[in-house]
Structure formats: C-alpha cells, structure tokens
Amino acid sequence: MFVDFRDVPPPPPWQPPKRPDPRPQLTPRQQNALAAIIGVNVLLLLVAPIGGATVIQAIGALFR
C-alpha cells in the first residue's frame, strides 16, 4: 500500500493566547508633573472667573 508522506503536517498543539503586557506605569517624575498640572488647573478653575469678572467690569467702566 502507498502512503503519501508529502501531505501537510498536522497543526501544532493548541496553546492559550499570551496575555498582553500590563499597562505602563508612570515614573515618579511623570507623577509629579501630572500633579502639578492638575493643581494649576484647579487653581485656575477658582481664580479665572474672578479675573474674568474683573476684566468685564473694567471694560464696562470704560464705556460709562
């Protein structure tokens, strides 16, 4: 009997997929920079409306 050994070999055995790398972590320097940026934004959130109102009042006083 003839056996054809030129046939495609069987696929390799199944292996579970690899997990992706964990999310990258911020370095301490990046954490400090992020904290400073957030702090400045919070400060401006509180101060900017007062400054904006003062500018509007000054423009209103110029046209009186």
From TrEMBL:
Transmembrane segments: 33-63
Keywords tagged on the record: Membrane, Transmembrane, Transmembrane helix
Biased composition range(s): Pro residues: 8-17
UniProt region (Disordered), positions on chain: 1-28
Protein name: Uncharacterized protein
Lineage: Bacteria, Pseudomonadati, Pseudomonadota, Alphaproteobacteria, Sphingomonadales
